[in-house]
Amino acid sequence: MKNHIPVLFSVGLTIVLAGCSSSKDASKDNFKKVINEYLDRNCIMISTHNNKFPATINLDNVWMADKIEQYNALASIGMFEVKDGSAQKNKSAFSTEKITVPTKIYSLSEKGKDAFTKNTLGTNQGFCVATYKVNEVNSFSEPSQAIGYIISNVNFTASPQKIKDWATNGDIIKAFPRLAKRLEENQEKSATLFLMNDGWMHEKEMKK
């Protein structure tokens, strides 16, 4: 990643905001470009809440019902290969007697391996569904000093693009009920941008 140097707040801010156009200008065009670059690198993701596969799920665990539905939906579109299995567990919390329970073993298919990726922070993994693209920058705050940086808060609308064909599959929408809302058009969003030595940077890029 390139080295970025924060621009400290000073009287020089007026110089940054004036004169000929540059990537350091506080403008709708610059902000749209920076936000779009960030959005294009960070997909709308279906999280599996599991980063390692094969994954084994006990079918008698009522707390796993939602995950089983989600994994079965992903299997139905070819992301997972599924096998039946079994596992040993204590008969109860107060007993050491073992019983055998049925399981499902989910492995990433070749299609699933191609689609499986990390999220923005690298803390979770899942399947990319689409990316957002800025429709319009509606407004932004006057650049000002905060926590040692010059920042601007930007309000914009965005819509999903490059939506995978399987993202609107009925089983997927049912298993991941929040996905439909995330794929709506013209969503109201906001972001904080930081002024660096080579232009503006999205707030979440600052954490890398």
Quaternary structure: single chain
Helix count equals: 6
Helix content: 10-25%
Q: What's the end-to-end separation, in Å?
A: 9 Å
> How would you state the average pLDDT, rounded?
87
Order of helices and strands: HHEEHEEHEEEEHHEE
Please describe what this structure looks like:
The chain is of the alpha+beta class and 208 residues long. It folds into two domains: 22-46 and 120-207, no CATH class; 47-114, no CATH class. The protein is built from six helices and ten strands. Strands 1, 5, 6, 7, 8, 9 and 10 form a seven-stranded antiparallel β-sheet that branches. The chain has a three-stranded antiparallel β-sheet with strand order 2-4-3. It comes from hydrothermal vent metagenome. This is Lipoprotein.
Question: Which helices and strands appear, and what pairs or packs with what?
Answer:
Elements (H helix, E strand, L loop, with lengths): L12 H4 L11 H14 L2 E4 L7 E4 L6 H12 L3 E11 L7 E11 L1 H6 E3 L6 E16 L3 E3 L2 E13 L8 H6 L3 H4 L4 E10 L2 E4 L6
Antiparallel strand pairs: 1-6, 2-4, 3-4, 5-6, 6-8, 7-8, 8-9, 9-10
Question: Could you provide a short overview of the structure?
Answer:
By secondary structure, the protein is of the alpha+beta class. It has helices spanning 13-16, 28-41, 65-76, 110-115, 170-175, 179-182, and strands at residues 44-47, 55-58, 80-90, 98-108, 116-118, 125-140, 144-146, 149-161, 187-196, 199-202.
